[in-house]
Amino acid sequence: MRSKQRWLGQLAAHLERRKRYPRLAQARRREGTVRVRFLVLPDGNETAVELVDPSGVSELDAEVLDLLHRASPVPKPPADVNPFFTVPVSVTISR
């Protein structure tokens, strides 16, 4: 369980470092959370990426999909972790 929690933290940090705020969404002051599902292969590459719950802001939805492609490979998952995930990715204006 600890290895899963540690890896999830590494995955979240890895994605956060690569996240970009789309200029058009920023200019329009759009924010949102996108729920995305993906499979992490043993080598850390992601596949089967799909939006589960879009934000309703097309620029943010596209950024999250681009983020997952840009961030691949991610840290390799522990062998005992189910590699199929659904996670929320928030794109917000820094305050």
Structural class: alpha+beta
Give me the CATH fold name: Fusion Protein Consisting Of Minor Coat Protein, Glycine Rich Linker, Tola, And A His Tag, Chain: A, Domain 2
Strand line-up of the largest beta sheet: 2-1-3
Tally of alpha and pi helices: 3
- Count of beta strands: 3
Instruction: Sketch the major β-sheet.
Output: 3 strands, antiparallel
Strand-helix topology:
Elements (H helix, E strand, L loop, with lengths): L1 H17 L4 H5 L4 E9 L5 E8 L4 H13 L13 E8 L4
Antiparallel strand pairs: 1-2, 1-3
Q: Can you walk me through this structure?
A:
- The chain is an alpha+beta fold and 95 residues long.
- It has a single domain, classed as Fusion Protein Consisting Of Minor Coat Protein, Glycine Rich Linker, Tola, And A His Tag, Chain: A, Domain 2 (2-Layer Sandwich).
- The chain is 37% helix and 26% strand.
- The chain is built from three helices and three strands.
- A three-stranded antiparallel beta sheet has the order 2-1-3, covered by helices on one side.
- The longest helix has 17 residues.
- The radius of gyration is 14 Å and the shape is elongated.
- The N and C termini lie far apart (34 Å).
- The model has no long low-confidence stretch (mean pLDDT 90).
